[in-house]
């Protein structure tokens, strides 16, 4: 199909500004769509099915895994999270550039199924800057931040597995660079 969209894997450690960059990308180009993930976790107040996540039961999720309907998935803190293949394919068929904001393990799973998917790893100027940003959020205690920093250090060892690495030292510049890469 001639107007088929592009699949873009978008990863990076917590605190590098992925969410802020994503908002700018979605505002800048109507052809860009953020893929909605599925989860078995309970819906939180204010969250909407199909907007924040597709909320499904553990049994439904496991059935989708058995039926090969998941592009990627993981289990975290007793719940499943993943990407439903039919959702992504529908967006691609409609000519959208589909952004999958996922962690490095999920990105590796996607690359096996979609070797032509473009991948972008977002980082910050330093680990100290990531820590500063996490602390600035003021949403977690010291132990949680230390854990996120340890995970971030591990995730950064996978940056060279991506097609592009973008340092978010300025959010507008980082978003513009990603827009250039996509185009």
Distinctive features:
183 residues, alpha/beta, five-stranded parallel β-sheet, four-stranded mixed β-sheet, 7 helices, 9 strands, 42% helix
Structure characterization notes:
- This protein has helices at residues 18-28, 58-66, 85-93, 104-113, 127-137, 142-156, 171-182, and strands at 7-11, 32-34, 38-39, 54-55, 70-76, 79-84, 97-101, 118-123, 164-167.
- The model has no long low-confidence stretch (mean pLDDT 92).
- A five-stranded parallel sheet has the order 2-7-1-8-9, with helices on both faces. Strands 4-3-6-5 form a four-stranded mixed sheet.
- The chain contains seven helices and nine strands.
- The protein starts with 6 loop residues before the first strand and ends with a helix.
- It is globular, with a radius of gyration of 16 Å.
- Strand 5 and strand 6 (79-84) form a beta hairpin.
- It is of the alpha/beta class.
- Helices cover 42% and strands 22% of the residues.
Please describe the biggest sheet, giving its number of strands, its sense, and whether it closes into a barrel.
5 strands, parallel
* Regions with little confidence, pLDDT below 50 for 5+ residues: none
Question: What letter string, H or E per element, gives the SSE order?
Answer: EHEEEHEEHEHEHHEH
The total beta strand count reads 9
Shape: globular
Give the CA-CA distance, first to last residue: 18 Å
Main sheet: which strands, in order across? 2-7-1-8-9
Beta-strand content estimate? 15-25%
Q: Count every helix, treating DSSP H or I runs of 4 or more residues as helices.
A: 7
**What is the mean pLDDT?**
92
Rg, rounded, reads 16 Å
Kindly state the percentage of residues in helix. Answer: 40-55%
Structural class: alpha/beta
């Amino acid at each position: 199909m001639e107007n088929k969209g592009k699949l873009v894997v978008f990863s990076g450690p917590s605190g590098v500004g992925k969410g802020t960059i994503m908002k700018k990308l979605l505002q800048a180009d109507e052809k860009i769509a953020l893929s909605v993930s599925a989860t078995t976790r309970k819906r939180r107040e204010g969250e909407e099915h199909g907007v924040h996540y597709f909320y499904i039961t553990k049994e439904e999720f496991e059935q989708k895994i058995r039926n090969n309907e998941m592009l990627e998935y993981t289990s975290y803190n007793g719940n499943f999270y993943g990407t439903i293949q039919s959702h992504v394919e529908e967006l691609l068929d409609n000519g959208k550039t589909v952004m999958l904001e996922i962690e490095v393990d999920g990105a590796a799973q996607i690359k096996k199924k979609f070797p032509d998917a473009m991948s972008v790893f977002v980082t910050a100027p330093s680990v100290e800057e990531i820590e500063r940003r996490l602390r600035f959020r003021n949403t977690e205690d010291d132990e949680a931040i230390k854990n996120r920093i340890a995970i971030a250090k591990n995730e950064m060892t996978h940056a060279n597995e991506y097609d592009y690495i973008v340092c978010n030292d300025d959010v507008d510049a980082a978003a513009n660079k990603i827009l250039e890469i996509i185009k």
